[in-house]
Amino acid sequence: MGVTILAIESSCDDTSAAVIRDGYILSNLIAGQDIHMSYGGVVPELASRAHQANIVPVADQAIRKAGINIDEIDAVAFTKGPGLLGSLLVGTSFAKGFALACNIPLIEVNHLHAHILAHFILEKDKENRLPSFPFLCLLVSGGHTRIVLLRSHFEMEILGNTIDDAAGEAFDKCGKLMDFPYPAGPLIDKLASEGNKKAFIFAKPSVKGLDFSFSGLKTSFLYFLRDRLKEDPDFIDHNKADLCASLQDTIISMLVSKLIKASQLTGIKEIGIAGGVSANTGLRDSLSGEGEKRGWNLFLPPFRYTTDNAAMIGITGYFKYLSGEFSGQDVAPTARF
Which of 97, 170, 232, 239 could, after both became Cys, cross-link 214 (CB 3.0–4.6 A)? Predict the structure, then answer.
């Protein structure tokens, strides 16, 4: 019958459950939490309470949509971390209870590892392109920005990391300065397509090697707006598209230049991106152009696997199941790794 994994993801504000069988996705459900938009960011206590309300119905619907019975599930994979501890506790507790009740193994998954392995999710009746090893992946989200070298599904090396803020955080905080709703990234991406990316120039911090820095960009953007608003109180409203296009182009150029350097240093041309910011159309277009010019075998994840989702937890759990990597009932979530 194959190996069937029930996966649970609850690291932040999305409650998700998925079913993976032999690497193929059977279902992937996500319940979001719109309440955080009113606060300009995720409120941990509200997030954990919403997870408690969502976890059982989401898991139930994932199993039903997959068309399987509970006794067909071979293991439960769950996000151990990193993430919000209160949110992680809900998912971990559910997974432990489910595994104990069904007498099946428990598999802990690193959330960031899972984002990268989303590239290996198989879908029925579709062409499934899978990266070969070694594989370079730019992992970019609201909390993390790093370049990772994979030699296998489990052998990884971080080649570059942010020394301060993440790229997604830069999008959101600069968006907040323009009074955009949280998360600001998708709106900036949309408006950027209508603007002139060379309209304004913002600081690009110089960092040695393959590391990143985005705090200087945020400061540059803040002071730029402060000075322009003194001259014209409606400056943001009059220049939203150009501001978004220029900001996005600055962030993308910083990301892509480091990825190009990593490819040149390692000689690897199997290249991918992962994480929430990998849904950014400007970043995708830029990487597609560079990939064609440089002969990369480029992997862009489907949009449904870019944000937090249980499918990526499931595929990671599937590979760990094959390797016999299981957790005990004493496992506890970890906010940071």
Answer: 170
- Give the other-Cβ count within 10 Å of 182's Cβ: 18
Q: Is 177 exposed, middle or buried (0-12, 13-18, 19+ CB in 10 A)?
A: middle
- Indicate if the pLDDT at residue 35 is higher than 60: no
The DSSP symbol for 133 reads S
Computed over every residue of the chain, the mean pLDDT equals 94
- In the chain, how long is the greatest CA-to-CA distance? 69
Residue 171 DSSP class: H
Bridge partner list, 298: 271
Q: Considering only residues 35 and 259, tell me which one the structure prediction assigns the higher pLDDT.
A: 259
Q: Please say if the pLDDT value at position 39 is more than 60.
A: no
pTM of the model: 0.93
Where on the phi/psi map is residue 197: left (φ > 0), alpha (ψ -120 to 50), or beta? Answer: alpha
Q: For residue 13, what pLDDT is reported?
A: 80
Structure tokens at 113: 């590892």
The sign one gets for the Cα dihedral 305, 168, 90, 155 is: positive
HEC profile of 230-261: HHCCCHHHHHHHHHHHHHHHHHHHHHHHHHHH
